[in-house]
Amino acid sequence: MQKHAWCCLAGFAVGAALTFTSCPALLAEGPYHVQDKWKVGGEGGWDYLAVDPQSSLLYITRGNHVMVVDTTAGKAVADITGLKGTHGVAFDTNGKDGYISDGAGNAVAVFDRKSNKITQTIPAGTNPDGILFEPVTKTVWAFNGRSKNATVIDAKTKQVVATVPLPGKPEFPVSDGRGSVFVNIEDKNEIIHLDAKAHSQLAEWPVCESPSGHAIDVAHSRLFTVCDGKKMSVVDAGSGKVVATPEIGDGPDAAAFDPNTGNAFSSNGDGTLTVVHQDSPDSYSVVQNLETQKSARTMALDPKTGKIYLVAAEFGPRPAATPENPRPRPSIVPGSFVVIVVSK
User: Fold this and answer.
1) 306 conformational bin, left if phi > 0, alpha if psi -120 to 50, beta if neither
2) How far apart are CA 90 and CA 130, in angstroms?
3) 203 CA to centre of own chain
4) Exposed / middle / buried, residue 164 (Cβ in 10 Å: 0-12, 13-18, 19+)
5) Which SS3 state, helix, strand or coil, does residue 221 take?
């Protein structure tokens, strides 16, 4: 995770499919830059974050609460409390309802996007993690990490309509907006293709090691999954074929795709944001390796502005391991939690 020593021959062109090892200096430069850092503070660790496509409010899961940040002012404007261990946020296309996967509560919390108050809690499987709204069936899919299945909720009735078994531990899901759902299976190194109407599995495709973050290019039917080993698998969403494996930073946990620029992104715990350009549906080149901040592993893309939001914090020393806690996490330095704004 050490920062590269930036040295490279100046004559190389960025378009020559450069990698981290071939020309890190040029890849540090590129079309994106850190525009701002908002010190929003607050308590708790964090997992996924999401931008409301209507209000552009940024929702950040923070353990037992969800912080809501105004992206025009760069300030926290609300806090959704009464939760136990949050992971993800999804938005209904009705513009009214939002959904939070409350992993430690084994539930999905429904909240009103105007008041940011919880209106209902729906039981799910064990430790719901990734979550999405599927627009064709108007269902919410919560992917349960420990029970290895998906809870399907009718968005109108707020009732569970199916529990879909999965072959392993699910991570982040995406939808193509046409009735298909795709989810990474972390412990099987796979992507699963699901039929949202039939609540059934259609296919099982191998990808890179320990896939986590996930994004989709709907127009060209391409999936982007980020993995250990500094790899992104670009997958044909029709056939399951891996068409490219561009190199990314270390420790990724989220991915995004901007159809307006043809750029895919990987946010990496080593403190970099990798920008991968789609030269064609089957050809990709790494165009930038933007320095962000160590621990900035998760992100969200605002589809209206193309801005990317990442979150990070500073940490104190790691406590000594004990038999009860063999892998203790270091504590967050109070007040150090920030939102990093990246723009083109």
Assistant:
1) left
2) 9
3) 22
4) buried
5) coil
CB 124 within 8 A of CB 149: no
| Rounded distance between C-alpha atoms, residue 340 and residue 344, angstroms | 14
Distances (CA, A) of 265 to 7, 81, 214, 235: 24, 30, 10, 15
Residues 148/115, Cβ–Cβ less than 8 Å: no
Question: Is the model's pLDDT at 75 over the cut of 90?
Answer: yes
Produce one character per residue of 41-78: b if its CB has 16 or more CB atoms within 10 Å, e if not.
ebebebbbbbbbeeeebbbbbbbbbbbbbebeeeebeb
* Nearest one of 163, 135, 131, 159 to 147, comparing CA atoms: 163
- Taking every pair of Cα atoms in the chain, the longest distance, rounded to a whole number of angstroms, is 61
Alpha-carbon distances, residue 132 vs 51, 79, 182, 233 (angstroms): 13, 21, 10, 21
User: Where does the pLDDT of residue 318 fall: very low under 50, low under 70, confident under 90, or very high at 90 and above?
Assistant: confident
Q: Which domains does the chain have, with CATH numbers?
A: 14-43+215-241+253-316+337-344 (2.130.10.10), 46-206 (2.130.10.10)
Q: Which residues contact 11 (CB under 8 A, 6 or more apart)?
A: none
Can you tell me which residue has the tokens 């309802």? 97
* CA proximity to 50, closest of 124, 136, 111, 138: 111
Length of the chain: 344
Tokens of 92: 């209904």
This prediction has a pTM of 0.90
Are 96 and 113 in contact by the 8 Å Cβ rule? The answer is yes
pLDDT for 2 beyond 70: no
